[in-house]
Amino acid sequence: MESFLSLKVSLILLLLVLVRCVVVHGDAIDDVQPLSKIAIHRALFAFHVNASLRAEPVLLGTKGEDFQWITVELECPDPSEDDWVAVFSPAKFNSSTCPPGDDPKQQAPHICSAPIKFKFANDSNGEYTKTGKASLKFRLINQRADFSIALFSGGLSNPKLLAVSNTVTFANPKAPLYPRLSQGKAWNEMAVTWTSGYNIIDAVPFVEWGFKGESQTQSPAGTLTFHRNAMCGPPARTIGWRDPGYIHTSFLKDLWPNSLYTYKLGHRLFNGSYIWSKSYYFKSSPYPGQDSLQRVVIFGDMGKAERDGSNEYTNLQPGSLNTTDQLIKDLDNIDILFHIGDITYANGYISQWDQFTSQVEPIASTIPYMIASGNHERDVPGTGSFFETNGSGGECGVLAETMFYVPAENRAKFWYSTDYGMFHFCIADSEHDWREGSNQYKFIEKCLASADRQKQPWLIFAAHRVLGYSSDYWKDGSFGESMGRESLQKLWQKYKVDIAFYGHVHNYERTCPIYQNRCVNTEKSHYSGTVNGTINIVVGAGGYQLNSHTPLQTIWSIYKVSDFGFGKLTAFNHSSLLFEYKRSSDGEIYDSFTISRDYRDVLACVHDGCEPTTLAT
User: Fold this and answer.
1) How many CA atoms lie within 13 A of 390 on its CB side?
2) Is the pLDDT of residue 472 over 90?
3) Dihedral angle at the C-alpha atoms of 482, 474, 384, 349, nearest 10 degrees?
4) Whether 505 contacts 473, CB under 8 Å
5) Looking at beta carbons, which pairs linking 195-198 to residues 24 or more positions away fall under 8 Å?
6) Is 564 helix (H, G, I), strand (E, B) or coil?
7) CB 73 within 8 Å of CB 135
8) What is the bridge-based pairing of β-strands 94-95 and 203-211?
9) Measured distance CA(37)–CA(115) in Å, rounded
C-alpha cells in the first residue's frame, strides 16, 4: 500500500513538472516577435547593379483609403532561397550614424530601425531560385510616413542589402485614423482616441458628433506623444523605435442613454482649412441598472497578424485575424469589449501598434474597446513592474497607456472600474502588486464594494495573469498566481463576484464556482440561488499561438478546449445571465452556462460572505 501511495505521489509530481514545462514553454513562445529575428544592425552593403525592385502604385489613398495593396516586382541575378524583401517606413531607412544606445556600426549602411514587415522572396514563386524573378503583394496602411522596399540576401541573421525600390506614399500621410472608443469616467461619457501626424503646432484636433441625422457639435481633443527616451530598454529604445505620431483623445459628454450617434475626427489647420476622417457611429451606454439586453465580449492575448501573410514565417498569431473577423461579423450583437492584456505583442517594435489599431478599427470605432495591461505591455526589469521580465520589449506600459484610453485615476497604474447597464466591472493590473495592503488591493476592494447589486447584479473581475485558478498555470506550488489568489479570493467571496476572467494562458478553461480550492456547487451548466463561489474563466486564446492543456485533471475544472475563441456575456435582465465561449473560426459555441437568481440570493449569507448582524432590536 505504501509503495502504491509513493508511486501515486511520484506520478502527481511528474504531472506537475509537465504542467510547469507547458507554462514555461508558453512564456518562451510569447517572447519571440517575428521582427526580432532580423539582425538588421548587422546589415552590409552588397548592391548589385542588376538587382532591382519596383513598387506600384506609388501614390496611395487617393480616394481617402487608409490602406492599399501594392505589387513589388523584383529581379535578382544571383537568387537564393534565403533572400527576403522588407518594407521600411520612413523610406530613407539608413543614416550616417545610429542614435546612442544602438549597437555600434563600423560600416555603412547604418540601418538603425527594423522594417515594419517582410516576406521571403520565394513566397509567391517557387521558381524564384531558378528565374531570379518574383512578384510580391504587400498591404500597406497609412503610418504617417513614406515607404520603400528593400531586397536582402544572407537570410535574416546576416542581411546584405542588394537593392532598394522607389518611394511609395499616401496622399495624406498625416490623416486622422484608427479611432478607438472607450468608456469615460462617467456612464454617459465616451472617449474617442485616434492617431494622426498633426502636432498641436500644426492643427487643432476635435471631434464633430451628434445624433444621427441631426445637427452636430464639436468637442476639443487633447494631444499626447512620446519620444525614444520614454522607452525603458531595447528594442523599443533601439531598432524597434518608430515615431508614434500624435495621439488625440476627446471626451463626448452628457450622452443620452441607448442613443445612436455619428462622429468624425477633425483637424483645423491654421490656414483655416479642415482635414476630416470618414464618418463613424456608436451607440451610447445604457443607464446603470437599466433592464435591457446587454452583451459583453471578453478575451485576452490576441495580438496582430498581417493580411498579406508577411511577418508570419513562425505562424505565431494564427488566430488573430479569425477572432477579429468574427467579431466584426457579429458586431451588431456586441455592446462593449474587453481585451484583457497582451494586446499587440509588439514587444518593443513600435510600428506594430499602428498595425494593430488598423486591424481592430472596424470594432474599436463602433463599440468601447476596453483594455487591461499584460506582461507584453508593461514588464521591464527595474521599472516597477511586479514581474522582473522584459515581456514588453522595453515599452514599459507607455504604448498601451497612450494608444488606448481607460478610465483609470492614473493610467500608469492600469486598474479601473467601469459600468455598463446591469454590469459592474473591476479591471485589475496584474503587472503591479495586488497583494493585501497594496494600493491596488485597496482599489479592488473599493471597486467590488461599490457595486449596487440591486441595480447591477452582475459583478465581474478581470485581470491578465491568472490571479485565480487554471489547471494549466502551475507556479510556486499553485495552479495560478498563488499570492494573487490567496489575497483576492477573500474579496471575491466577501463581495460575491460572479465571474473572474483571465488571459495569459493561451487556451480556454472554466472552473466550477470555487472558493479555497473547493467546488461549492455541483452544477455544470446552470447555476441558481445564492452566490457562494466565483467561477474562474481563462479566455487567453484570442489569437496568439495556443498552449496545450496539461493531462492533469483537477476536480474544479469543468471544461477545457485549446482553440481560438472569445467569451461572450449576455445579460437578459437582472435575474438571467448567459455565458458562451465562441470559436473564432466560425462563431460556433464550444461551452456555455447560465446563471439565474434573484436579488435576495445575492444578499444571502454564505461562508466568508456575510454582513454583520446584531441581536439588538
Assistant:
1) 13
2) no
3) -150
4) yes
5) 195/144, 195/244, 195/245, 195/246, 195/247, 195/248, 195/354, 195/357, 195/403, 196/144, 196/245, 196/246, 196/248, 196/265, 196/267, 197/144, 197/173, 197/245, 197/246, 198/174, 198/246, 198/267, 198/275
6) coil
7) yes
8) unpaired
9) 11
Inter-residue contact 276 to 265 (CB < 8 Å) = yes
**Distance of alpha carbon 501 from the chain centroid:** 15
- Asked if 586 contacts 573 with a C-beta cutoff of 8 angstroms, the reply is no
> Band of the pLDDT at 27, cuts 50, 70, 90?
very low
The phi, psi pair for 485, rounded to 5°, reads -65, -45
Length of the chain: 617
Q: How far apart are CA 298 and CA 369, in angstroms?
A: 10
Cell of 607: 461562508
**How many CB atoms are located within 10 Å of the residue 494 CB?**
16
Rounded to an integer, what distance in angstroms lies between the CA atom of residue 514 and that of residue 493? 9
pLDDT for position 324: 97
CB atoms within 10 A of CB 442: 11
Within 62-168, strands assigned E span 67-75, 84-88, 94-95, 110-111, 117-120, 133-141, 148-153, 160-164
- Residue 410 is classified by DSSP as B
303 and 278 Cβ atoms separated by less than 8 Å: no
- Backbone φ/ψ region at 516: left (φ over 0), alpha (ψ -120 to 50), beta: left
Categorize the per-residue pLDDT at 572 as very low, low, confident or very high, splitting at 50, 70 and 90: very high
pLDDT value of residue 24: 38
Residue type for position 337: L
Q: Are 484 and 523 in contact (CB under 8 A)?
A: no
Cell numbers representing residue 408 in the block: 483609470
The pLDDT tens digits of the residues spanning 508-556 come to 999 999 999 999 999 999 999 998 999 999 999 999 999 888 888 899 9
Q: Which amino acid is at 306?
A: E
Q: Is the pLDDT of residue 1 over 80?
A: no
The amino acid occupying position 362 is P
3-state secondary structure (DSSP) of residue 519: strand
pLDDT higher than 70, residue 100:
no
Q: What is the dihedral of CA 361, 364, 367, 372, to 10 degrees?
A: 160
Are 283 and 290 within 8 A, CB to CB?
no
Residue 592, Cβ density class (10 Å: 0-12 exposed, 13-18 middle, ≥19 buried):
middle
Scan for cell 509530481, then name that residue.
Answer: 13
Instruction: Write out the DSSP string of 278-341.
Output: --EEEEPPPPTT--S-EEEEEE-------TT-TT-TT---TTHHHHHHHHHHTGGG-SEEEEES
Count of Cβ atoms closer than 10 Å to residue 313 Cβ: 15
DSSP letter string, 177-234: EEEEEEE-SSTT-EEEEEEES--TTTEEEEEEEEETTS--EEEEEEEE---GGGS-ST
Nearest residue to 399 (alpha-carbon basis) of 239, 544, 224, 541: 224
Q: How far apart are the two ends of the chain, measured CA to CA in Å?
A: 59
How far CA 493 is from CA of 37, 194, 281, in Å, comes to 46, 39, 40
Q: For every residue of 202-214, which 3-state class applies, written as one string? A: CEEEEEEEEECCC
Residues 66 and 171 sit within 8 Å (Cβ to Cβ): no
